[in-house]
Amino acid sequence: YTISWNIASVLGIFAASLSATLFPELSKLSAENRNDDIKELVEKSLAYAGLVHIPGLVGAIILGERMLQIYGTEFISGYVVLIILIIAYLVHSYNKQVLTALEGMDYPNMAFRANLALITSNIVLNVVLVSNFGWIGAAIATMLSVCFSFILGYWYLIITIDFTLPIQIIGKQILAATIMGTIIY
Question: Residue 161 carries which DSSP code?
Answer without folding.
Answer: S
